[in-house]
User: Fold this.
Amino acid sequence: QSVLTQPPSASGTPGQRVTMSCSGSNFNFGTNTVNWYQQFPGTAPKLLIYGNNQRPSGVPGRFSGSKSGTSASLAISGLQSEDEADYYCSAWDDSLNGPVFGGGTKLTVL
Amino acid sequence: QLQLQESGPGLVKPSETLSLTCTVSGGSISTSTYYWGWIRQPPGKGLEWIGSVYYSGNTYYSPSLKSRVIISVDTSTKQFSLQLYSVTAADTAVYYCVREIIGDYYMDVWGKGTTVTVSS
Assistant:
């Protein structure tokens, strides 16, 4: 049972805009920022979004993040087949005194 | 460009100790900006943070694993290590070492991961 809640799956067609949600609590999202990771099968996760909406160098601008209250979302615009991956949200949790993750959303590009 | 590489046995017997080492290359381990941590991923499941260490040796651990975990750092060899005691099949996972940004607590550099199976 993950501390952060993500839907297990999402899908979209090429060119479409897709959003994925992540739900937390006041212990994590209340005062801390949200980060997102992208993971392809058999590989290590990669930082995709940090600080709610910041993109590391090299991450395309069609990836964006947002946070409002105890919910966060990751949006991908102009969906491409190579975006098919698992996406995890994460944040620091003040009650557990450590970083926590969502269970991940598997994105399928139809 | 900083890189992390995990190493250690791929098979551990139940009740024994899982020991892994992460070697840092292409950068310093003795920086005030980062923690160095371990994250694991059981087969087909999500990510779980295990714990982290500062270059001075300060550590913090997941409450659920704290009683069985020790993470240490050796700045002279640019390595940090994970020891997980009394393992069971539930500890079977891919183990990643990571660099964590202090303050914002995101992991910006990941090792490739190493698979550890707990089985007799």
Summary: Chain A touches chain B through 26 residues (CB under 8 Å). Strands of chain A lie at 9-12, 18-23, 34-39, 46-49, 63-68, 71-76, 85-93, 98-101, 105-109.
